[in-house]
Every structure is written in C-alpha cells, then in structure tokens.
Sequence to fold (378 residues):
Amino acid sequence: MDSNKNRGTRLGIVAGLMILLLVAGQAMAQTCVVPPSGMVGWWPGDGNANDIVGSNHGTGTGVAYTTGKVGQAFSLAASLPYVTIADNSALHVQELTIDAWVYFTGTVTAPKNQYFLRKWISSDGGYGSYAGFRTSGNAIGFTVQSQTPSQYPGWRSSASLSTDTWHHVAFTWKRLSSATADAADGKLYVDGTAVSTTFTPNGYNETFSIQYTNQPLFLGKTTIPSWAEPYNGLIDEVEIFNRALIADEIQAINDAGSAGKCREVDIDIKPGSDPNCFNINGSGVIPVAILGSEDFDVSDIDKYTLTFGDLKVRVRGKKGPLCSIEDVNEDYYPDMVCHFEDDGTSQWTAGNGTATLTGRLLEDGPGFMGTDTICVVP
Fold:
C-alpha cells in the first residue's frame, strides 16, 4: 500500500471539505440591511466619532473604542467619557427615530438615570430636545422636550433589560393627530419588537413641538448630578432619522445583527469599460472591482461573503476565491478585483439596469454594498 498516496488522498478530501464549509459559510453569513431612508446622522463608533452619512462628525473626550455589536463601539465607562456632536439643522427634526445597540454594565444609582444620548436645549443640559436613557431598574427610556413652554413627555419600557449583553433599542415619535397628543405618539422597541411602556405626559398636549437651540448633541454626558449620572456601558451604531420608522424597518435592523446596516462603497463592474455590458449564458466570469479609499481598506474584505446580484465569487480549489489586489482607477489606493461565476441563473434580464454587490469585512465585521450600472445582452 502506498502510504504517501493515501495521505495525499486524505489531505485532498480534507481540503475539499474545508472549501465546501467555506462556501456554505458564505451562503449562510448574515447580510447587512440597506439603511432606511430619512437618516440624518449615523455614528458607528468604528475607532472615531465620525458621522458616515452626513457631516455631523463628533469629538470624543476620554472615549475608548472596543469590540461592538457591529465592528467597534463607543466605550463610555470610567473617567466620564463622552462624545460631543455640534449642532446642525439636520438634527432639528419634528418626526423622529433614534436607534442604537446598547450594552449596560455596572449599576445606576436610584432614582437617577444614565443618559446615553441627549440633544441639549439649555446650556446646562437640564432640558434636552430628545434623549435616550437607562433607568436605575435597567429599563430603557426616551423623551422629547420643550423648555418653553415646559413639556417633556417620556416613555419607559415596562420591563428591564439584562446587563452585560447587547440589546437593540429604538424609539419613534410622531404626532398622530394635530388635535391630540398622547402616549400613542411614541413607540419603543427592544431587540426588534415593540414593547409595553409607562408614559409620563409632563404637560404634553396638542401644542407640543420639539424645541431646538444651538446646543450640541451628546453621547454619554450629563451635568445634573441630582437626577442623572454618566452612562456606564457601550453604545454602537447610533442613528437619528427625520421620520418615524415602521416596525418592519426596525425589525430588519435588529435581524441584521453584527452585519449591521450596509456601508456604501464604490464598485466598478468590468473595470475600465463603459457601458458595463455582459451576457448571462452559464459560462465564464464577470469581473467586479471594489474600490479602496482613504477610509476603506480592501484587504479587510472577507472574500467568501461577497455576492454580486445572486452570483458568487469563483473558487479555485485550494487557492480560494478568484480575487486580486490592483489599483484599477490609478488613485494610489488598492482595489480588490473579484471574478463572479456566471451560473446561468442570474436575476438580471436583457437591457440596461443596475447591479449591487454586497459583502462583509473579516471576522464577522460590518456589511457593505456598492452599485453600478449594467447592460445585459442576450
């Protein structure tokens, strides 16, 4: 018996199984969700306090960054860290959604609250246009406010949240009727599901509108020690929308899990060609370049998660996905060119349109997507 031959056969079988597992993992990997419309601020906490959907960049004071639910997160624990986001008219909304992933640590001194988000009205932080907080009983709460006249309705979850684990929380507020103002205007969601709340009207009536000044939006900061204390925990993927998201949109964000909402990247189908024409006949490959930039390092891409429409990257036996690093647009930033298998079952039909590529970063990192024009020829 040729032991070397048998050993080679066994290694080949193991390698084949590994490839099958990788491909299966590619098919089962969580995918990111397209961000809902109306987003006016998105702070993912990936090593900085930048807003990746607008220009409302924040400045961290004593903030650390650690492993989050989606990529990295803001660590707002110890040494009174906080993030300052300068006022911007885009944040002055009269219909609202706030959502984030929160991770509670430690305890809250009763009967105080810990504010993880607050858009100040007054310079001392005593009033906030809108705010999200944790109670001493580990419930989640949100408020919208007017200082003049004094109206500050609040909604708190009836149940508490467990500590030392991630929860997705979201709050929507929209006046359902110009003639009335009541608890139904606000909805609170935990882990993708609407939850029962305790409503405190505090003067809330049909004359209410959210009041705004030029004061900043803060993550984690408080200055009123008699009834509030600094937030103790992590916060990730903080977003503000200028409309009340519907339940299905909030559920989709929660269900995306660690893939999160899709970051937008640039792609170039059939690099250098225009228009980007190809046919779908069940043979060959379609090259797509994922363009790198100052803020996007293509070497962080998990090639096994890439999908172009419904096509997968061609896998070359033990060599893995057919991808290479090049600078296709000569901007001095490396790009990744991957070749997608034409399996003859594509979703596209003949004519002009668009195609979308999705993927994730390594180590179950955030998801991303890019879109380019195509023309499919018969």
Q: What stands out?
A: The first helix runs from residue 3 to 28. Residues 1-28 have pLDDT under 50 and may be disordered.
